[in-house]
Structures are given as C-alpha cells and as structure tokens.
Amino acid sequence: MSLLNQLRTLLGHRRQRRTAESGVFLTFLENSRLVTAGIFLCTVAAIVVISSAGLNPSHLPVQPNQLATTRIVAALPFTYESASRTAAAREQVLDRVPPVYKLDQAPLQKFEAGLRELQSRVADAERLAPDGAFTTSELPVDLVAAFEAFNASGPYHAGAEDFKLLVTGVNPDTRAVLFESGLDILRQIYADGVHDGSLTAMPGNIPVTQVMGPGGVGVRRIQSLEEALTYLRLNLSGGDVPRPIAGALFRFLRLGVTPNLVFDREATAERERAALDRLQPVMVDVARGEPIIEPGTRVSDEQYEMFMAHRRALRASTDNQLDEDLRLFGRILLVLAMVLASVFYVRLEDRETFQSNTRLGLLALVVILNIALVRAVSSLGELDFFAANTDWASTLPYIAPSAFAPLIVAILIDAGSAIFMALFISIFTGVIYGNRLDLLVVTFLASTVAIFTAQDVRKRSRVVRAAGLGGLAIATFALLVGVADKLPAPTLLMQFGAGLASGVLTGIMVVGLLPVFESLFKRTTNITLLELTDYNHPLLRRMQLEAPGTYHHSLVVAQLSENAAGAVGANPLLARVCALYHDIGKTVKPEYFIENQRGRGNPHDDNNPSLSALIIKSHVKEGVDLARQHRLPRPIIDVIQQHHGTSLIRYFYHREVTRTHGTGTPFRRGDTKDPLPPGLVPAEVSETTYRYDGPRPQFKESAIISLADGVEAASRRLRRVTPQHLNELIESIVRERIEDQQLDESPLTFSELSAVKESFAHTMLNMLHSRVDYPEDDASTAPAKA
To answer: Which H, E and C letters describe 497-518, residue by residue?
Structure first.
C-alpha cells in the first residue's frame, strides 16, 4: 500500500473513532430513560410556569353582552367607584332639576311701538280733518295706509271695521286713554308670563315653573294664552266703555298677546351644574367571595365594571398569596394529568416515537412553544390599550396560533400524534382563557382541519394553505358565536379578521421554522425530499458528468425502491431520494467501478485484492463526507452507510482466496457481486478486510434500497430476460441477504419481503422489455416501436 493510501486510511480511522465516540453519546441521548424522564419533568415544569405564572381570572378577556363561560368571584374585598351607578344617579339628579325660563318682552315692545305709531298717524290725521273728526262712511287714505303699515309691521291681522270703529266711535282723548289702559294690561300680562300649553304636565296640572327674574330664579304661576286673553277681556269691559267699543278694542289688543315664556338654556345648565357638583360618586363595596360574573349569563355593563375594578384591585394587592398557591397546585395536577395522558397515548399508538428521545424532545419543544405563544397573546389583554378597547380584546382568543405545534408534528412525525397534540394545546388554550369550552372546541377543530389538509404535503405553499384553512375555521366559528351573542357588526368583523390572520401567520411561522426543527432534530420532511429530487442538485449533476454509469444505476435503483416502498407502506419519496444519492461516493474515484469504465482498462488489475476492496469500500465513507458537506438530511446519510450493510465484497475476496490457495476459478473482471463458487471454503483469508463497515439496514427504506441495489447490479448479468429468470435472480439475491444476516436489523417482515420481490419483478420486466428486430434493407417498412 502506498504511503498516501496509508495516510488516508489512518485519517479515515481517526475520523471513524471520533464519530464512534460521538455516536455513543448520541445513542445515549436517543435511548436513555433518564433523558426521557428529564424531558417529562422539563415539559411539566415549563407548561406549569407558562400557563400559571401571573395568570388569574382578572386577565380573562371579558366583553359586555358576551355570554360568560366561567364563574368569577371576588378573590379579595375591595371598594370601587361605580361609573355606571354614578351615571344613573346623575340622570336622576338631572331629571329632578326643573328647566329655567325667562320672560321675553320683545313681542310686547314691538306691538307697543307699532300701536303708538298708528296712534300718532291717527292724531295727525285728526288735526287736519275738518272739525277734528272723521265721518263713519270713509277714512282718509293716509289712515288706511297707516293701518295697513301697522298690520305689516308684525304678525297682526287687525280688522278694518274695528279700526274704523275705534277711530270714529270715540273722541281722541278717550281713545288715547283706552289704548294706554290696554297697554298697561298687556304689560301686566307679559310680566306674569304666558305659556303656549307645554307646561300642562306639572304636578296637579298647575303651570308653575322656574322663571329667571331681576332677583334671580323664582317660582311663579304662568298663565296660558287663553287665560291671558280672558284676563284682557275682563279688564277692558269694565267702566262705562260701550260694548262695541270694548269688543273692538279687545280684538285689536289681543294681537299683542303671544306666549313669552322662553327656555333659558344657560340658567338651566347653571342649575344642573350646581346640582351635579353636590352629587357624590357612588361607591360599591364588594365582599370576598361575592360573585362577579356567573357562567351562562350575559355580561352586563355593571358586571363588566365590577370585573375591571376587581382586576385593578388584584394588581394592587399582595394579600391573595394563598389563592395563588392553591391555583398553582391545581394547575400542576392538570398539567401532570395531561402530560401523563400524552405519554400513555404515545406509548400505545406510536411506539417508535416513545422509544426515541429525539421525537419526544421535538414533541415537548413544539408544545411548550405553542403554549407559550398562546399565553403571550393572552397577556396582551393586560395592556392598557386592550383594557380600554374591549372590541380588540375580544379578538385575542382567536388570533392565538393554536395550530402551530399540531402542524409541525403532523409534518415531522405523523398525523396521529399531531391530533393528540392538537387536543392537548386546545385544552390549555381554553384553560388560559378562563376554561372556555367553546374556544377548546374551535381551536381543536381548526388544528384538525390544518392537519388533514397538510397530509403528504410536498410544497411549502401547501403548509400556509393548510394553516389558512384552519384559520378560516376559527374565523367562521367566531362569526357564528358572535352572531349568537348579539355582538355588534364591527366586533364580528374584527374577530373574523383575527381568525384569518391567525391561520396565515401560523402557516408563515411553520414554514419558517420547519428547516430549523429538521436540522435540530434530524427530521426530514417530504418538502425537503422533493427539493432534493432536482436533477440539477450539485451532487447529482457531478454524478451525471463524472460517473454516468453510477448515475444511471442510481436512477434504476430509485425507481425499483420507490415502487417497492409503496407496496409495503413505506415512504416512496424517501426511498427514491435516498436511492438517488446512495452511491454519490463513487464520484470521488469513478474509474474504479466497472459501470463507469466504458471499455477502458480496469485499474484493479494492477492492485492486490485487499487494496481494491479498500477502494471499493471507501465509496461509502466518501459518500457520507459528501452528504455532510452538502448538508443532506440524516436519512440519506444513513442509507449511504447502510445500503451495503456488512456484506462481503465477494469478487476481491474470492480473488484473494484464489491467489492464496491457487484455485483457478474463473471470474468476471470488475464484478464485485459475483457469488463465491460452491465448495470453495476460505481458510486463511480474513473476511473482515473484505466486508463493508456497515451498519446493516435499520429501516424499511434502507433495506429496500439495499436489495434493489443488488438486484439492479445482478440483472446486468442476465443474457435472457424472462419472468422465470428474473424471479430466480431476485429470489437468490434476497435469500443471500437473509442468510448473510443483512436484514436482521430491518423492520421488514417476510410478507413485506414477498411484496418487495413482486414489485422488483414487475418493475424490472417493464424496464428490460425487448424490442422487435428491424429489417436492415428497408427501415421504412418496420412496424412501430413496441
């Protein structure tokens, strides 16, 4: 062996020792029951802290008119100022404050000015008339104009006959006295006040009201318009005034009688302010243990006010430590019960997960993260913004990303564990938000919808779509519940939008964190596997260019493995991808493998068998190194290591036996999979040098690829491809692997091996089909290709 090869071998052994040491530690972490117990205790402690620390009924998102789902009682005695009761008392006080009015003298002043102007015009006309008087037949034109001007000066409709009678029926002096007396009566009426009939609702039907006068506000009786007119008529009919003159004078002066009681807004507001200043706020005393909100009832404004006061009292108090301790103890019991139930479920339904600390750690981490996210969202309700805006606070339960952990578990592990984790998360979501059964149901429904939609997901956009459909389920449920609770339309829209936003954000978070969890817990999703099927991947591209024979071999093995994996319920996509990369180590020294020699010389002819076997075996180690350099998933690295197991490199082993014992058994040059000739028993040649380092196949896909690799290589020795020959070949390969104990550590059963053999035969027959012979002299007459 050359010095260079010795150095490479030495370095390889050192790297292997380090890998073995790290492998022992990783195996301990993976299988140790102490680590399992630590995961259990850490999970319980984390969930207790997250779901209990600082959590009390005061943090629950409660909204007026909402149907209460939990009973809340006062944890301590407290006193608060009731805004609702104080507002009711204010309304009562304002109702008891009578309105204040003022007496408007403007209508009287206007009427008096018009009447005096008319009197002055009449006096001027009388001075110009012969004998100082007018005939009863006709009035002068200027008097008629003055009369019409008087009517036009206001809403007056004095009769022309009454005016004519007052002008011609009495002498000027008597008329002046009558008019002046009438004005005095009008002044008295206006001083007493006239209302328009709107004060008839006073106690006893007596129109008594508050009137602002020169000395302040006083109580007085206000006469109605009818009473004022009656008073005017009675006062005008006294004395020796003739009835026709008195009637005409009454009909003329009644035009000056109008309601003059006007509402005094400023005086009324002042009296209301004075009454409110004397009002004391209503204080409410709440005893310890007194119910604040009862389940099944709608939260009234007064209950909501008491609840918020209770929240403030709890924040300011340090005397409820005993209640906090009891609540913490109850929460510990709940968490213990739920985690134990999860352990039993995983133990019964998913033994593979139960026996893998990596999977248990993944479950614990995503559940803790999910509950922490739900708790973080609920804690937003303590902010002043949400405390002041109950509509926004009502959206918090629906925006919590409760489907985060179930989606990740469904993609990285399986749907069964994901559904149980969805129930687990939903229970604690309901507990965090005040034992809300409706929230438990809707979050579990949304998670189940997301899990169902994410089955066999192979694109990252499908993850967001699955989470979005879960969010749509939450939004629809929130809308229906809100309609049942008779919530206002803006609140319904906000809750609906919160549900949709929750789904989209959950999908984005899952897509962003999936690569992290894949790398941290050595899990591989179908999304990543599908991305690795790109034939332009650097490793596949290198294989196409540098080892085309190996590349074609890998394609055939991939097809065989994919079909066989589907036949036995394994992961066909995982089998296909692992098969594509299982021989990437051959790209380091492609000329040493017969499928890449293409008629050129065989370099093994110049080497001794042990060196050739070492080179052949090195493609496994080189493949692992390349896979790690390109960060390929752990299952692919495992298949690279396991696809040969600890099988014997028979060609070079036989050649070494022949060289040692002088046995002249014929061989096919470069074929590493020729069986050892019957009856040849090696004596002094150690098999260890000629066996792969392993390990043997550990999972179904790895075992299937190992068998497909052997079947594809051996099928190239067939001179005639018939079902019988092919079945015999496949049967011999499988029997040889079983006898060599290469399948002892794989979970394949004998019935599954039968299905694998049938799948291999069907696929190989379709691949190795024959073609018809075409005439050499006339190709145009050849039949269509079969």
So the answer is: HHHHHHHHHHHHHHHHHHHHHH
> Contact 228/218 with Cβ under 8 angstroms?
no
* First CA to last CA distance, the chain: 52
Q: 395-443: per-residue pLDDT in tens?
A: 888 998 999 999 999 999 888 889 999 999 998 888 888 778 888 999 9
Question: Which tens digit of pLDDT belongs to each residue from 252-305?
Answer: 889 888 888 888 888 888 888 888 888 888 888 888 878 888 776 778 888 888
Q: Which two tokens stand for residue 729?
A: 């070949």
The encoded tokens of residue 12 equal: 């390889």
Q: Can you tell me whether residue 65 is helix, strand or coil?
A: coil
237 Cβ neighbours under 8 A, 6+ residues apart: 243, 246, 250
Its pTM stands at 0.62
**Residues sharing a CB contact under 8 Å with residue 125, sequence separation 6 or more, in sequence order:** 134, 140, 142, 143, 146
Instruction: List C-alpha distances in Å: 107 to 260, 385, 402, 708.
Output: 8, 56, 75, 115
Q: Which residues contact 362 (CB under 8 A, 6 or more apart)?
A: 409, 412, 413, 517, 521, 523
E strand residue ranges, 17-144 = 72-73, 78-81, 100-103
Which element (helix H / strand E) includes 62? none
Phi-psi region of 132 (alpha: psi -120 to 50; beta: other; left: phi over 0): left
Rounded alpha-carbon distances, angstroms, from residue 483 to 460, 473, 477, 486: 35, 16, 10, 5
Q: State how far the alpha carbon of 205 is from the alpha carbons of 6, 201, 208, 223, 729, in Å.
A: 124, 6, 9, 12, 118
Encoded amino acid at 100, one letter: V
Q: What is the DSSP secondary-structure string of 273-294?
A: HHHHHTPPPPEEEE-TT-EEE-
One-letter identity of residue 22: S
Alpha helices in 380-488 (DSSP H): 384-388, 390-393, 396-399, 404-412, 415-432, 437-453, 460-484
Within 13 Å and on the Cβ side, how many CA atoms surround 555?
A: 12
Alpha carbons within 13 A on the beta-carbon side of 219: 5
Q: Residue 356: phi, psi to the nearest 5?
A: -115, 115
Inter-residue contact 726 to 765 (CB < 8 Å) = yes
Q: Is 233 left (phi over 0), alpha (psi -120 to 50) or beta?
A: alpha
Residue pair 133/127 in contact by the 8 Å Cβ criterion: no
